[in-house]
Amino acid sequence: MARLLKQTRFIAFLALAMLTTMAAIAPAQAQQPVRPKVVVQMSDGDLAKWNLALNNMRNMQAELGAANIDIELVVYGPGIGMVKADSVVGNRVDEAMTAGVKVLVCETTMTGAKLTPADMMSKVGYVRAGAVEITQKQMQGWAYLRP
Fold this sequence. Notes:
- The protein is of the alpha/beta class.
- The protein has five helices and five strands.
- It has a five-stranded parallel sheet with strand order 4-3-2-1-5, sandwiched between helices.
- The termini are far apart.
């Protein structure tokens, strides 16, 4: 009987210790801010949508601080004109990249349009398939924006 009482007290002590530890850890975890991550899709050949996307990204950085948010612009399909070397919004895309936006171009679209990296803005990056990149980012918890 004494042994059972000791075991019961020991189990109660362990349970109390675990609860106390969990109570101390939970507020610390809750206080750590989650860094926003946004993947922006541009698959439209519409100048107004290009400007809207660029405005959205700039506004998010202005609101949260450019250093406090990860933004990735994925360009494919008819949207590829946005990041061609002769793009009418090229200066704005350059400004976005300078501010920390990662711009990725779909190589599948480039192949279909017979474009090479020499046809594109110099600082862009490349992914094999734009839609796959967006899907993977969403699976990793990134917010999705399609202006």
